[in-house]
Design brief:
Layout lengths: L3 E4 L2 E4 L2 E2 L3 E4 L10 H11 L3 E5 L2 H4 L18 H10 L3 E5 L15 H4 L6 H18 L11 E5 L8 H8 L7 H9 L4 H8 L28 H31 L6 E5 L8 H6 L3 E6 L11 H15 L4 E6 L2 E2 L3 H4 L4 H14 L3 E5 L7 E2 L11 H17 L5 E2 L3 E4 L2 H5 L8 H8 L5 E3 L10 E3 L8 H12 L3 E4 L23 E3 L5 E6 L2 E6 L4 E3 L6 E6 L5 E10 L2 E6 L5 H10 L7 E2 L4 E8 L2 E8 L5 E6 L9 E6 L5 E4 L1 H4 L2 E5 L3 E10 L2
Parallel strand pairs: 4-5, 4-12, 5-6, 6-7, 7-8, 8-9, 9-10, 10-12, 15-16, 15-17, 17-18, 18-25
Antiparallel strand pairs: 1-2, 2-3, 11-13, 14-27, 19-22, 20-21, 20-23, 23-24, 24-25, 26-29, 27-28, 28-33, 29-32, 30-31, 30-33
Helix pairs in contact: 11-13, 13-14
């Protein structure tokens, strides 16, 4: 029997790769007489994989009585749907729960089980019985079995503690529970340590209760008044991370015990208050992200960058970085926020996913259903032309690009710490991320809690506290030969908010407040004019290479330094980053950009496969652009360059004189994917 596995960011059945581009089809929400018609429209779109939830409460029509063969309702005939999808030649991603959410009553869980949180012994007992029953139906269809076609299985769904529903069961109200048990374990039974950390005077761990700063948008709530309240706040999020991981671990284990021997993955929200993505990867085969942006990414000026950054971070975490639910239409309620989803919107978000390094996705929902709008295929298997045609175009481009076979060309990395974002001690509008985006600097992301990849340059994006292990990882990266760059924000405390310095950064001697003007900064032999909108740190920098600036009436000041550590170095600049400053640092380090646009709002990334190169271009602007794009990585190639647009098949040939820089048209809120091939004249 073939082995099904995730290897080198690919799904392999035996030695054959199955490209991961799929669409969600909910069999039980469609009239079974239209199943085949809908599936054939999916096939005509070019897809070979579909995905579906299995709703527990619908199949357990009466407590203790299950129907998976349509005896009580033909829409319950899961077995017939499995037979049909196999007959029609589809691979399948199965999502049996126990939770499915999906705008379904009680999130797909029967009322008798919904009363208990996901780690409660009663819930686990009920869920285990359901999984035992449903697995009898789907196990023979696993791709590891003869003629099987189920490629992957999702364990549970967007695992969330839901403290607003189950908080009283966790000990967040009067009666002690899991929260207090977790704190006792976290502090290893040392009550004085907890009291010292939180500034409390508990006589027992059973008294411990969280201090939760408000998490609602635009609500100020109670402010955090110091490190002790902040520590108490962070420990609450550590509890949530622990809870979600334990649910994930148990769910995966139950499926393994039932005989599931194909890859099992977990899906996450597109934010971090409930899920620690690396922790999910530790207990599963892969982690996928769920993404539902607003139409044309107009929610705010940063939405496009935030979407790309989430995928960049996922690519650093998951064995198979894919979007488990990628917007294809929208659910009732959210449609008021997203507005009407236009054809170019779908091109834009898919090309942005390519740009960020995605390897695959599952469109949710590809076929319409109740409480859903704007899918390219309706409930009767009829297509919505202007949407269907665009999806078909994207599938064709995906197959030509083959994301799992290409390598992103960048020597630049950025740190990303989920707990800092979860607790809102750091916003998604981190100055370094904004500066990189505005300068069209492509980069990969890494979690400093994990081993850091060998990028030539690593920018620190975070606040001043960091886990000790992450401090040590940054130090190790530098000692091995990397260059770590930090600005005003640099790691100087541990996650107990005690002073801690493992990397080698120096404290500033003083700060020049209210300093907002343009000045010239000398970095190496190059003078770089920059305009800053922040106060500026001044350093002693004893024994370091000093970075100085002429601040007019303030005179020459040491506003940064370069320090050698092992085989590498740190560069520390005492001001907030701006694009000119970031580009100046990269120029000093002789770290070229592989591609970059000088046209506002146009973003790029360059990839390679053997001797072929692929340029992804996205225009986040509100008007069509004649974009000027520089390709330093291709300047030394052979004379003749043939270019093909993977979205429309258009072919172009450039002479050496005409190809640098590249000038191309990019429609508003849209993009292009160009394939470059070189040959001698």
């Amino acid at each position: 029997m073939p082995k099904v596995e995730i290897k080198r960011q690919k799904i392999l059945v035996g030695k054959k790769e199955v490209p991961l581009i799929s669409g969600e089809v909910h069999y039980w929400r469609l009239n079974p007489h239209y199943w085949q018609e809908a599936l054939r429209r999916v096939r005509e779109m070019g897809l070979e994989i579909i995905s579906t939830y299995v709703p527990w409460d619908f199949h357990e029509y009466k407590r203790g009585h299950f129907d998976f063969t349509g005896k009580t309702d033909e829409a319950r005939n899961l077995k017939a749907f499995l037979d049909l999808t196999r007959k029609e030649g589809f691979w399948l991603i199965l999502r049996p729960g126990p939770y499915i959410y999906s705008e379904w009553p009680r999130d797909g869980v029967p009322d008798y089980a919904y009363r208990y949180h996901r780690l409660h012994p009663r819930f686990l007992s009920y869920a285990k019985e359901y999984l035992k029953q449903v697995s009898k139906i789907f196990l023979p269809y696993l791709a590891s079995r003869k003629n099987g076609h189920i490629l992957m299985l999702q364990a549970d769904n967007e695992i969330d503690p839901w403290p607003d529903v189950f908080g009283h069961q966790y000990g967040l109200s009067k009666k002690p529970g899991l929260f207090q048990d977790f704190m006792c374990d976290l502090y290893k039974g040392d009550l004085p340590a907890l009291n010292g950390s939180w500034g409390t005077e508990y006589t027992s761990f059973r008294e411990a209760s969280p201090f939760i700063a408000t998490m609602l948008p635009n609500e100020k709530g109670l402010p955090l008044k110091g490190d002790k309240e902040l520590k108490r706040h962070l420990d609450y999020f550590k509890f949530k991370y622990w809870y979600s991981q334990e649910v994930a671990r148990g769910s995966v284990r139950m499926y393994r015990d039932l005989g599931v021997d194909i890859p099992i993955y977990l899906n996450t929200y597109p934010f971090f208050y409930a899920h620690d993505w690396p922790a999910f990867q530790d207990v599963s085969d892969a982690v996928g992200l769920d993404l539902y942006p607003s139409n044309e990414l107009k929610e705010d000026e940063f939405e496009h960058r935030k979407l790309c950054d989430k995928i960049r971070y996922l690519a650093s975490v998951s064995n198979l970085p894919f979007i488990a639910e990628f917007q294809s239409g929208i659910w009732h309620g959210r449609h008021y926020e997203t507005s009407v989803l236009t054809p170019n919107h779908y091109r834009m978000i898919c090309l942005s996913a390519f740009l960020a390094g995605v390897k695959g996705w599952n469109w949710y929902m590809l076929v319409n259903r109740d409480n859903w709008y704007m899918s390219p295929i309706n409930e009767w298997g009829r297509v919505r032309g202007e949407l269907y045609d665009v999806f078909k175009q994207i599938v064709s481009a995906f197959k030509r690009l083959r994301p799992t076979s290409i390598r992103k060309l960048t020597e630049i990395g950025v740190t990303f710490n989920t707990l800092q974002y979860a607790a809102r001690t750091l916003t998604h509008n981190s100055p370094i991320l904004v500066a990189l985006y505005q300068g069209d600097v492509d980069y990969d992301m890494c979690d400093p809690r994990r081993p850091i990849p060998g990028k030539k340059v690593l920018f620190y994006s975070g606040n001043q506290w960091l886990e000790k292990g992450a401090h040590q990882n940054l130090r190790h990266y530098v000692e091995k030969g990397g260059t770590l760059v930090a600005f005003r924000s640099f790691p100087r405390k541990d996650d107990d908010f005690r002073p801690y310095q493992a990397v080698g950064f120096e404290e500033p001697e003083r700060t020049l407040f209210e300093f907002k003007r343009q000045f010239t900064l000398t970095l190496g032999k190059r003078a770089t004019p920059i305009a800053v909108n922040s106060s500026v740190y001044v350093f002693k920098a004893t024994g370091c290479q000093k970075i100085q600036a002429d601040l007019g009436t303030y005179g020459k000041q040491t506003v940064g330094y370069i320090k050698k550590i092992g085989k590498g170095q740190i560069i520390h600049l005492g001001m907030e980053p701006v694009p000119d400053l970031v580009l100046g640092v990269l120029n000093y380090l002789k770290t070229p950009l592989m591609s970059y646009s000088v046209t506002r709002d146009v973003k790029t990334a360059l990839f390679s496969r053997g001797k072929r190169y692929f340029l992804v271009v996205v225009n986040n602007g509100n008007e069509d652009k004649s974009a000027t794009i520089h390709l330093p990585a291709l300047e030394k190639m052979q004379e003749k360059m043939a270019v093909r647009d993977l979205m429309n098949g258009e072919k172009m040939v450039f002479s050496k004189e005409g190809r640098h820089p590249l000038n191309i048209h990019v429609a508003r809120k849209d993009g292009r994917v160009l394939e470059f091939a070189f040959s001698h004249r």
